Backbone:
């Protein structure tokens, strides 16, 4: 392959990617002599070499190694690549899905917990972030930067440190229960309360014991009654923490999008007599649609990865109701020394997240133009 | 407000909206800030006081007992480890990420597109699925439970390369061309002409790297187990999981969490706009 064709092909690609007119792509740069060109080739490889080596050794190779381990019964002794390690094929995966037993029950419980967690955290943090962004974006607001800072600051702090603070606030006689008792509510013992929210609501209307139809069977190793538990009280405390820490970042994304909504558009619709709600519904929200998709999918991807908070606050307890796939894979490998099954769990989780990411790409495929607004030197 | 008639709303709407708007904002500002007040106040309380009045912002009596105990224990060691890891990783990332970012943006060499595609793919790999893989490779290389294990895997990050590539593509070519025509080599051009003009991007990357490494927790969990190699998040997590013996000892834990938060808080206060830029840049790469 000649250097000249590679170079011009690359340059075409670059000008297309940067959104510049294709005709400028060729005229922008003087042609260097052959010596400089080969210099560039060597320098290019030297410049990327450290990144390639480190990412190769600590990202790509480990993923392949872990896939191998997920097909074995390695218990952590010696090297997993020696001949003595038993090869079990897809057993670690089938134990998660088709064989009845503790492995599947724990895995499905973690999936259930994470599903409820996603179903509550994603909508709540999105609505909260959007609401705060709309309020902060008010043209007349004084102290705008104070509010923005206040809402964003939790996002930049250490997840471990902030988990400690919330552990203290949700303690039995802690701040949250203190506030609840002010309103005459007897707060629960948050982190030892495994009761599910849906079960609690059913209890209020008198359904204390599971109906026979729900408790006698169900899919994938859990009864219908277990699937329909709702998030436990303990999980609610963790969800509160996560919503509190992530809303600020998403608020900033909405804010960046709102600031690119032309003021004239808003004013014009105001003069036309549109109410505040109508302006929000028919002018602002449609313009925020790309950001909304982005926040929702980033939220989806992020919520399937919850780990730090679980590790610090509950370790999957009480009664496994805060177990998530990420924490279960860690625990299975590093506490139960069943590295094969731990790795299998993380590959299933990987698959879930990849599917969600691809779904995002697919939904966003025609929306490249608005996303450019986030380009970082606007 | 929905019950107001249209006429009333015309008259009062603006003011009512403003008052309600401020009330909601102040309520949420309290919700977002008060946990830090609780953290600060309770780390200066005695244990019975913290247990009895967790909400009170005023310690009674004020005691620095928990900090004295922290300084007596392993805390200074964790702090030192955190500083070491965060500084080395930040310097490494800023240098190596911008080298690679520059090459991918400006230098023409075979395989460039494939490398960039791989880096974008790596950015999409969720961190939590890498716990076991990372442990396996550190174990295999014989560096598990060493400073090398804490630092080396964090030394470059795909997102940083991506950010720098985007930036280098956005600055004009003319400066570099002048330098190259004057006969400066590729590295000379990069080091003394391109990098100085990349200051805003370098500051953003420095801050994001420092904050990310300072707060990093799961990596330490799979890289080391010796308490003398713990960084602050790992040490604080260890305090919580019962390394303290009797009692809840919340003032001590909150004090440790507070000290672990302060450096990032200071950097945030000074460089807030770079954090904001980083967050919206995150939106771009998603």
Residues:
């Amino acid at each position: 392959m000649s250097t000249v064709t590679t170079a011009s092909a690359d340059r075409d690609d670059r000008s297309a990617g940067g959104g510049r007119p294709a005709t400028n792509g060729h005229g922008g740069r003087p042609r260097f002599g052959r010596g400089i060109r080969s210099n560039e080739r060597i320098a290019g490889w030297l410049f990327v070499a450290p990144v390639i080596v480190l990412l190769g050794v600590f990202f790509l190779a480990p993923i392949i190694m872990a896939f191998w381990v997920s097909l074995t019964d390695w218990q952590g002794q010696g090297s997993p690549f020696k001949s003595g390690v038993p090869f079990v094929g897809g057993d670690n995966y089938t134990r998660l899905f088709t064989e009845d037993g503790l492995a599947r029950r724990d895995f499905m419980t973690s999936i259930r917990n994470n599903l409820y967690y996603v179903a509550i955290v994603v909508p709540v943090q999105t609505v909260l972030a959007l609401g705060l962004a709309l309020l902060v974006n008010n043209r007349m607001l004084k102290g705008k930067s104070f509010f923005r800072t206040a809402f964003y600051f939790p996002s930049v702090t250490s997840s471990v440190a902030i988990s400690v603070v919330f552990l203290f606030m949700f303690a039995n006689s802690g701040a949250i229960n203190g506030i609840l008792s002010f309103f005459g509510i007897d707060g629960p013992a948050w982190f030892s309360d495994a009761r599910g929210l849906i079960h609690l609501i059913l209890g209020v209307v008198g359904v204390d014991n599971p109906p026979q139809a729900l408790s006698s069977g169900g899919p994938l190793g859990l009864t219908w009654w277990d699937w329909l538990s709702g998030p436990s009280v303990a999980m609610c405390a963790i969800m509160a923490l996560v919503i509190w820490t992530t809303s600020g970042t998403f608020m900033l994304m909405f804010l960046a999008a709102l600031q690119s909504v032309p003021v004239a558009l808003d004013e014009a619709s105001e003069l036309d007599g549109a109410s505040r709600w109508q302006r929000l519904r028919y002018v602002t929200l449609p313009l925020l649609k790309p950001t909304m998709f982005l926040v929702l999918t980033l939220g989806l991807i992020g919520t399937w990865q919850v780990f730090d908070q679980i590790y610090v606050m509950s370790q999957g307890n009480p009664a496994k109701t805060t177990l998530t796939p990420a924490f279960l894979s860690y625990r299975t490998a590093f506490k139960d020394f069943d590295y094969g099954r731990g790795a299998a769990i993380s590959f299933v989780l990987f698959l879930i997240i990849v599917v969600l990411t691809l779904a995002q790409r697919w939904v966003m495929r025609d929306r490249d133009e608005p996303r450019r607004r986030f380009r970082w030197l606007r | 407000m929905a019950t107001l008639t249209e006429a009333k709303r015309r008259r009062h709407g603006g003011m009512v909206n403003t008052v309600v708007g401020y009330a909601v904002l102040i309520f949420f500002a309290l919700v977002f800030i008060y946990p830090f007040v609780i953290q600060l106040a309770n780390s200066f309380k005695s244990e019975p006081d913290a247990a009895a009045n967790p909400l009170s912002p005023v310690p009674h009596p004020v005691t620095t007992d928990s900090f004295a105990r922290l300084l007596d224990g392993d805390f200074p060691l964790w702090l030192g480890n955190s500083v070491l890891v965060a500084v080395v990783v930040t310097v490494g990332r800023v240098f190596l990420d911008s080298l690679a970012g520059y090459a991918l943006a400006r230098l023409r060499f075979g395989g460039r597109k494939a490398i960039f595609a791989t880096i974008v793919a790596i950015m999409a790999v969720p961190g939590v699925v890498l716990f076991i893989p990372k442990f396996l490779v550190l174990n295999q290389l014989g560096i598990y439970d060493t400073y090398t294990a804490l630092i080396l895997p964090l030394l470059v990050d795909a997102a940083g390369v991506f950010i720098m590539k985007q930036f280098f593509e956005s600055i004009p070519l003319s400066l570099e061309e002048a330098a190259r025509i004057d006969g400066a080599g590729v590295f000379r051009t990069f080091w003394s002409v391109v990098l100085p003009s990349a200051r805003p991007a370098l500051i953003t990357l420095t801050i994001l790297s420092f904050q990310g490494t300072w707060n990093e927790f799961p990596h330490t969990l799979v890289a080391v187990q010796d308490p003398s190699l713990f960084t602050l998040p790992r040490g604080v997590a260890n305090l919580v999981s019962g390394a303290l013996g009797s009692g809840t000892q919340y003032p001590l834990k909150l004090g440790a969490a507070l000290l672990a938060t302060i450096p990032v808080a200071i950097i945030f206060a000074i460089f807030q706009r770079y954090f904001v830029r980083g967050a919206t840049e995150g939106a771009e790469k998603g």
About this structure: The domain at 94-196+231-374 of chain A is CATH 1.10.3720.10 (MetI-like fold). The CA atoms of residues 221 and 368 of chain A lie 43 Å apart.
